[in-house]
Amino acid sequence: MDKIVIDGGKRLRGEVRVSGAKNAALPILCSAILTGGENTFQNVPVLRDIRTMARLLRSMGAGVEGERTVHIDTTKLDRLEAGYELVKTMRASVLVLGPLVARYGQARVSLPGGCAIGARPIDQHLKGLEAMGAKIRLSHGYVEARAKRLHGARIVCDLVTVTGTENLMMAATLAKGRTVLENAAREPEVEELARVLNKMGARIEGAGTSAITIEGVDTLHPIEHAIIPDRIEAGTFMVAAAVTKGDVLLKDCLPEHLDAVIAKLRSAGAEITAQDGGLRVRARQDLKPVDITTQPYPGFPTDMQAQFMVLAAVALGQSVITETIFENRYMHVQELARMGADIHVDGRTSIVRGVPRLMGTTVMASDLRASAALVLAGLVAEGETEVRRVYHMDRGYERMEKKLEKLGARIRRAEDAEA
Ligand code: EPU
User: Looking at CB atoms within 10 Å, which of 150, 163, 341, 346 has the fewest?
Assistant: First the structure.
């Protein structure tokens, strides 16, 4: 197992390239199931979660070749199943469910169970598939879904779910008739998936709004597509630049996906300007506190909550952070407290009182975004920080320590002998 060792206190300076979006790439790789033949996806981030998805597709009989540019051939796909071992390591495996039922009329997918950031059920995915005519059975920890051919339906989600919207949108592309998804997720990753499906011949309108209409078609065809940049990776580097009082230019990012994050960074006192087709982030003085409530897009993303907690931990004053999406996404708090942060959690709300400095120590990553937050804390802390269990970070950040090192951070990866 690896750890990341950071010697804090360096201002970040320079340019960093944002990789392709993990949460766009995962459903897009699954969308290949809907077509026969070979799809080619470019700008796929090189990450552990992507490798896990490739393993899952291979285990079903698909051919998956390449990194960054990934070719997926589903001609020989014949095992319509996602087993427990893969689903438990990555919940996004559930994204094969909709495409499998739509194209092959059946699927067997392990129930994801709990994960570090909460219970995260998939009832909305199942409810939607049932409305489209699938027979759903839960058996021995697996969801079994069957349908000769799905039919269109009007589906109102009880809550906004990103992968739920994606699963149902993919299922509806090959259903007979029209599906309307209401209270749909509006995330850019949903819009990107719709763009991909429409290129394949689907007829989807309204993706990016809360009502998506899908006219079912009989078949979809393979395509070539380059995936959008990762807004959460971009946001993480923006916070890194701000907390280190740095000056960083993010290349290959889409500022229009970052409105809520940019607004909060500006209110904290960071200067953000569009430059050279990217975003330049500068901070010259100590940051001001910020109040944050996580919301579905276009609100403030839950995937940036932990990173902003680091910003609040070193800001001049008190911030209030409220997590409304996941019930257990504060596991970084105890670790930040060990570095000297002053954070009081009461249910879904955290009161963060900024301290003059954080102190380096050994901390333990618990989930993907928490691990990124601990690395950010290490960048501003006095002395040495060791972040252990960084396999969490490797799920969703491509060579994060290399990118930070290029920006001037004193950071390295090392083997963790004690793990
Ligand atoms: N929920 C239900 N029932 C469902 C589906 C969701 O109760 O059927 C609840 C969840 O338990 C949660 C809330 O609804 O409390 C929102 O969950 P959502 O389904 O939107 O999350 P997700 O689709 O499983 C995606 C991202 C997450 C990101 C969330 C929220 C992917 C692969 N994952 O998860 O990304 O935090 O949306 O924006 O797109 C990450 O990248 O670190 C990550 C966790």
Answer: 346
Ligand 1 pocket test: pick from 31, 50, 120 the residue with the most ligand atoms within 8 Å of its Cβ: 120
Taking the C-alpha atoms of residue 210 and residue 182, their distance in angstroms, rounded to an integer, is 6
> What residues does 181 pair with on adjacent strands?
155, 212
Q: Is 241 in contact with 12 (CB distance < 8 Å)?
A: yes
- 358 by DSSP, 3-state: which? coil
Write the CA distances from 14 to 250, 280, 368, integer angstroms. Answer: 9, 10, 25
Span 143-194, pLDDT tens digits? 999 999 999 999 999 999 999 999 999 999 999 999 999 999 999 999 999 9
The per-residue pLDDT for range 254-299, each reduced to its tens digit, is 999 999 999 999 999 999 999 988 999 999 999 999 999 999 999 9
- How many Å apart are CA 382 and CA 47, to the nearest integer? 30
Handedness of CA 81, 87, 89, 90 (dihedral sign): positive
CA distances from 144 to 16, 90, 111, 153, 176 (A): 44, 19, 10, 20, 21
**Matching residue, tokens 């276009």:** 298
Ligand 1 pocket test target in 47, 50, 93, 161 with most atoms within 8 Å of CB: 161
Greatest alpha-carbon span in the chain:
63
What is the C-alpha to C-alpha distance for residues 393 and 369, in angstroms, rounded to an integer?
7
pTM over 0.90: yes
